[in-house]
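We store sequence, tokenised fold; for instance:
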Amino acid sequence: MRPRMEHALPLLIAFGLALTGCGGESPRETPAATASPPPTAPPPTLPATSPSPGATRSPASPPTPGGEERLVAGYYQPLWPFATLAEAQEWQRAHRADGRGAWHLDPARTAIAFSRDHLGFKEIDRAVKTVTEGRHARVHVGFRAEEGPRPLVAAIVHLVRYGSGRDAPWEVVGTDDTSLTLTTPKYGAAVGSPLTVGGRITGVDESIRIQVRGKSVVGEECCLPAGGENTPWSARVSFTPAPGRTLTIVASTGGHVADVERFAVTGVTMAQ
């Protein structure tokens, strides 16, 4: 989502868009994003945790037993790096054969690659904090400002394991949002162009850029002046329909100490 996706809709999604980044090449190494080995035990069938208050989404009901493959397909939007379960399974087979693309097994490296390489937020180059519980991971991605002793967090990227087996790769499904939220459109909604995008923001002299992304940017609106304390923001953005069904909506703001200081994403589908 998206600044914060507050209430996710249980969805049965047909995915057809092949997103970039699912090949075997590892993204560039970053200071706080070293690869970790795959877990020693298979992940549980059911989601081990529900999103915290204010998170991107909350499934109305857990997947049924044996429904590991439906953890993404039935409840979350697969934003990156795999557009479909078949793509994730193809990577698994290749990785088992020759070890390619091991970064897919590390949620921190996947979250950083999503932010920096896929979204183009080049200054976001580290995982400040990673919380993994069962099939879910939440990676606090950020950057180090010139002033200040600690890295700043730009977003909390939510990932889930896509598929079955202890080597199921990590998939970005949204963000958990705090001071920049993206609540319109609702997570998983079917949308058309033009699209109303909105949420709330806390800050001073903010400038919000909105992008609609398929494999690449298909629509953009910049820049919306905003600020205040938990103040509503809203904008209209037109976009060119992209192949496939899943779209990523991105809201970002910055300009004080970095080009992008906060961002939020949500996943929607193309209206039929």
